[in-house]
Amino acid sequence: MTGATEGLTGKVALVTGASRGIGAAVARRLAEAGVALGLGSRSGDDLGLAGAVAPPTDVRDPAQVDALVAAAVAAHGHLDIVVANAGVGAYGPFLELDPEQLERMIDVNLKGVLYTARAALPHLIEAGGGDFVSLASVAGVNAFPGEAVYNASKFGQVGFVRSLDIELREQGVRCSNICPGGVATDFAMGTGRSEDSPELEGMMSADDVAEVVMFALTRPRSLRLMTTTFRPMSEGSWG
Length: 239
Ligand SMILES: NC(=O)c1ccc[n+]([C@@H]2O[C@H](COP(=O)([O-])OP(=O)(O)OC[C@H]3O[C@@H](n4cnc5c(N)ncnc54)[C@H](OP(=O)(O)O)[C@@H]3O)[C@@H](O)[C@H]2O)c1
Known about the structure:
Blueprint: E1 12-16, H1 21-32, E2 36-40, H2 62-76, E3 81-84, H3 99-126, E4 130-135, H4 148-168, E5 173-180, H5 206-217, E6 227-230
Parallel strand pairs: 1-2, 1-3, 3-4, 4-5, 5-6
The chain binds NADP nicotinamide-adenine-dinucleotide phosphate.
């Protein structure tokens, strides 16, 4: 691990999409660093982490997101870190996507991040500063065939967080887009791919991504990461 995590002990973090994949890996790393947790997913999984609060939360519903943030603050007293990670993908030609898939990607990936920011940021500001980490994607800065709506959702997410960075820097809130390439999770196996899809070969692990999130969170507060892209060695940097 690059960068000591001692500075995180006693902090409180909210992680959405925490029940598996990247969110679960980030939550476990934060818990190891002594961070108290509020975890959001529809299944409400607390990952067995001591003290974690995990009310079932669908990030498409602003009232549920408000309730998740309120539960984390009620349990732990304050909020310092947000990892807006919940996300879904469906691959394939744009004209073959059905309206439900289209709406789900925009609602979870884009509107879910807006609702999370809206509910959580006042607490970071009240705490005198903090970190808002958005788990975006290389698809938030590069276009890919078969990912038009996913691209739209992730470009929107990246743009939103870049604007927040400008708005909130002077209040001590660092807003950071973390943009991985392929990560071997359930997501990567998602709609439109099968186990022998060439895209799946040599992908990064969820722990690799958690390492980068922890790197961002442990930088000295005199600097901030804004939009960080990274890929497995097996992937080119096309797009
Ligand atoms: N895997 C990749 O190749 C890759 C690459 C770049 C970026 N990303 C991004 O990384 C993030 C995490 O992806 P992942 O690979 O870890 O995916 P994953 O393994 O499929 O996990 C997705 C997580 O999001 C939660 N979730 C889904 N819909 C939700 C909703 N409506 N409300 C609340 N939680 C919801 C799921 O929990 P429940 O089902 O319990 O709700 C789960 O915990 C996403 O934003 C994704 O776009 C992934």
